[in-house]
Amino acid sequence: MLVRLHSFTVRLAAGYNPGIVPLKRFFKQKPKKPDYDFLDLGCKKGSSIGWSHRKYGGRGLGVDMKQEWIDEATKAGYDAICADVLTLDYPENSFRYVAMMDFLEHLPNEETVMQVLKRCKKWSREFFFIHHPSFEDIDYLKSLGLKIDWTDGYDHNSPITLDEFKEMFKKLGLRHYTIEPKLPIVDSTDKHILPLDAPHNTIFYNKSLGPKKKVTFDRPVYSRFEIVVPLDK
């Protein structure tokens, strides 16, 4: 279903009719319990909504700025709206949790990341979680003449490191969190490892890039981190 509210387009799953209401009233009213248990920021085509449901349960509402992705998400049966996260105005504790999977690194800068985290703290009753690509090993790999493809492109304008996340959490008064590394990369044969001089925005190694060093890494290198921040409310 496509609903146009003033200059805003909202797409919801078939069969759901919120009625036509002013935009500000819509976002203050939605979602009402028990309509949605979680909010998924940067949902793209909806797979992250499904992942969050399987992992943590509940019914989710996805948010993304690209209408074509919202169209795909709703076709797949998910509820999703086309919106800029920074324009949303949900009441405190509107959701049991907020999900951010491969989302924060696409925001324009660290200040915007901090603004989003503040909103997640406000909107969530129990916790919020982040899936984030690793930017921990840029200098180490550079010393070997290598780089990871997602650290040089992919529209990753905010390559936040774990230390930077920890500092943000501290500023928000969030003292407790878990950080779990995922998908270790043990050597340079991994497809994401590129020669240092590979062109910007190169995705995956291919032979046209020329040879790359065969190196077994002497320290842990991970692809991503799963961060869960519980809230004491």
Tell me what the structure shows.
The structure is a single chain. By secondary structure, this protein is of the alpha/beta class. The protein is built from six helices and eleven strands. The strands form three sheets. The chain has a seven-stranded mixed β-sheet. The chain has a two-stranded antiparallel ribbon with strand order 1-2. The protein has a two-stranded antiparallel sheet with strand order 8-10. Strand 3, helix 2 and strand 4 form a beta-alpha-beta unit. The two termini are 36 Å apart. The N terminus is likely disordered.
Topology diagram in text:
Blueprint lengths: L1 E4 L2 E4 L11 H7 L8 E4 L5 H10 L3 E5 L2 H9 L3 E4 L12 E7 L8 H14 E10 L4 H6 L2 E3 L13 H10 L6 E7 L8 E3 L26 E9 L3
Parallel strand pairs: 3-4, 3-6, 4-5, 6-7
Antiparallel strand pairs: 1-2, 7-11, 8-10, 9-11
Q: What is the makeup of the main sheet?
A: 7 strands, mixed
Determine the mean pLDDT: 88
Could you say which structural class the secondary elements and strand pairing correspond to?
A: alpha/beta
Q: Quick one: overall form?
A: globular
Number of DSSP helical runs: 6
Order of helices and strands: EEHEHEHEEHEHEHEEE
Radius of gyration: 20 Å
Q: Ranges with pLDDT <50 over ≥5 residues?
A: 1-34
Distance between the termini: 36 Å
What percent strand?
Answer: 25-35%
Spatial strand arrangement across the major sheet:
5-4-3-6-7-11-9
Q: What proportion of the residues is helical, as a percent range? A: 10-25%
The tally of strands reads 11
